[in-house]
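lol ok so funny story. i was supposed to be doing the assay writeup but got distracted and ended up predicting the structure for this chain instead. priorities right. anyway since i did it might as well share w the group, maybe its usefull for someone
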Amino acid sequence: QVQLVESGGGLVQAGGSLRLSCAASGGRTFSTYTMGWFRQAPGKEREFVAVITWSGSGGITYYSDSVKGRFTISRDNAKATVYLQMNSLQLEDTAVYYCAAEPYIAAITRRASDFGFWGQGTQVTVSS
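and the output, tada:
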């Protein structure tokens, strides 16, 4: 079983930047996992943010419309870590951000149900 630990959340002013990290340990070779970022704001359902497919399928990235052009997902297989660089943060980006993993998903997916492994989440708060 892979364990996922997110870090890098915090309080930032609108227009600022944060970089989230998700470190994986245990389980399969990290490069075989498709990795996703999701977020959940108070009173709202968990929503898709970004995904990067496993390395054997090309490491394809895909973003939700709300973050496209502002957020960048990347992975460092040597460090077994996936990142979410968040720029031009907006008030509506405030949420708990979760890292998720699932082996060998080759196609782009934005469904939380496709991911079997989750981190505990890290809080991102954007202030005006």
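DSSP finds no helices and eleven strands in the chain. The radius of gyration is 14 Å.
back to the writeup now i swear
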